Queue: 2 jobs
Job 1
Amino acid sequence: MRSVALQVFMLRTLGIEGSKLLMKTNLKYVVRDTDRRGNVRLHYRRHGRKLRLRGPEGSIEFLEDYQMALVGRLASAQAKSKTNEIVKGSFRELCVAYFQSADFRSLAPRGQKVRRGILERFCINNNDGEKPYSDLQSKHLRLRRDAMMDRPEAANNMIKAVRQVFKYAMRYQDFDRNPAVAVEYLAGNPDGFHAWTPEEIAKFEDAHPIGTTARLALALALYTGQRRSDLVLLGRQHMTVHNGSDWLRFTQQKNIRNKPVHMEIPIAPELRVVMDATPMGDMSFLMNGYGRPFTSNGFGNKFRDWCDAAGLPQCSAHGLRKAAAARLAELGCTEQEIMSITGHRTSKEIARYTKSANQKVRAERAIDKMSAGKGP
């Protein structure tokens, strides 16, 4: 079969109208769905996602959409084209209104970006954004959730975002129900991100000696216990002196708009050694290869490269936050003491982070007590 691009060129050259049915195709990833009225709808289906293709099958419009879908550009093109074509009463219209609400605007910039992306993907998939939001039921959302079972956290974030949209509808649009409330979250990995072991930390340090940005990133994460969104913003402006010691004073980025968490953490001597031996920026300690501060996602990608270079594909930057909490637990720190470093508001996450460490400490104490009670 001729390439899709060549077919489009030939059809345009021949002057054949796009609305004319040209042929029955046998293109990969094309599926045909028949609605209740007997109309055939064409979709490009791949990686569990369906994108609508213009018809009729074999037309110039159909082949153009298919070609864009192959190179991953159709979804963004459809989203852009529909910006000014919002169906009244549709879920997309409700989302646009929600984006203007105080609830949405109270989120931090990164939170707004993430939630907007989730809802835009929801609208594009199967053209759900053009359907009346009043028709959306819990069973429909469960099907969407179940299609993402291989990504439970992403599925749960989708349900959470839709819940907030309908929460807005109930407050401002006199809508009487929230179909997402009845949809259960999927059970994710109960252990969360992999927590680095002492051996893995040593292996990373061997691969990235003191003086490298990779080693500085490791030390900042391990000795402050902060998220990557905070690590990339830490700079000299956050340094202060208290009782003769250097401290870091900053506000965490998560929930900074509505529930800010203000942090003051002493700089550990081990971290100070690494900082003194490593070239750093001023407003941001961590600088990328272009001499500019990392973005949160850029830092995550670069840290992934550093881990791979050290032979640690199972490790991640977030796992260091968990390792920091576990290390503090092994040293006998209380949950409140650990929370004063990580910035968690409740002990729920701390308990999950430190479960294995607490078990290890209790087991060691139990054996010590048993051995002490045996006598000579």
Job 2
Amino acid sequence: MAELPTVTVVGLGPAGPELLTVETERLLNGGDPVWLRTARHPAATGLAISGSFDDYYDEHESFEDVYVAIVARLVELAGEHGSIVYAVPGSPTVAEHTVELLRSAEGIDLNVRPAMGFTDLCWNALGIDPMAEAVTIVDAHRIATDTAGRLGPMLVTQVHSPEVLDDVMLALDDVAPGEVTILKGLGTDDEHVETVDWAKLASSVSPDHLTSLWVPKLAEPVAAAFVRFDELVRRLRSECPWDGEQTHESLRPYLLEETYEVLEALDAVTATGDDPESDAYFDLEEELGDLLFQIFFHSRLAAEEGRFTVADVAQGIHDKLYRRHPHVFGNADAAETIAGWEAAKQIEKSRESAMDGIPTTLPALMHALKTQKRAASVGFTGPDLGWALGDVADELAEVTEDPSAHEVGDLLYAAVQVARMLDVNPELALREASERFAERFRIVERSAHSDGATLADESYEALGRRWADAKAMRSES
């Protein structure tokens, strides 16, 4: 049986060539072609190499794609030469994803040799025993998932650029530690170890490929449930045929349906109050989860298109609410802030009219109320309730003269003005009126049925009497 080609993986250690193992030096100079994952390493200077994979980082969209491509090329090179040496920064067994992928690659014999890792220099610089401290080593590229549910301490590795540092700070912002220690260029002439306040981290370091962060303790666990949920949605999108076919447009009915189911659950909570026997809150929890799935799903679709992620959604609403509540997060006057909300939003969104930005997809009554509130926010409104009631009377007279959809619409719009003046939600008021009608109508139906009559055959006067009885019965109950 023919022998498989061999890929021997060695580690270049955490700094200069003085920290290379004797075995690593022997293998690097043993005559086999040498390929580096990256030539940007202090120990790579002066090595006789066949090439590096630095160009792959520019050619591929994600680090995962880079690592997969490197492994595929290593397998090809091993087949061409029979035996090659692959050199990685630090130790091949610590935070080296290409080695993880090589272990499952077919068609090669893998030989991983031990080396000093960069973490050894970190522990020495920090003066700690990682086993005694129960340290977690976290890849900065997986900061959100790898820190889920953890309090620390943790060593955040591969903080190699300002963009990655931004991701780390964003992921940990809500649970930020008081202080963090910067570990940069350990073992080199430019070694830098500094403990700084979390708020000053971004201005205290220019990250490079030899930068790590020591986080002694987080304020509280990262929201593991949301991280797991985001990962579940990503997996459903990639592995479930139905989820994989959905678009923003196809999901619209489900978003609307889940929204109304949440509203129904809220009504049940209101109706049952503090009844300990009620399942209303359990139902509300479930319906809010269904609605949350729609939000995560639309965010996943946007992420696939390179638009935004669910983290951007959360950060965006966080920042917007922060800006719009200077009376909470600053020293502004609360009454003035609340009174000027619509005007501030109009400036913020560069709106030319107070009517801009009102969703046309709102239910008609809600849309009418929104337009009236916008107009009132800039001083365009009637003086009092008497004016609103008079407007209803005027519109009713016009409907009498011209019973068209146009005039009926004006009458309904005037009725919404009355609701607004009374601080009544017209959508809820009309729905409750519809429910009252339906309940009374069922009473009338049962009454007629018990008398052996049908509603279609009864006179208007008889129906009126039954309706009056139904209203009285409903009032007594």
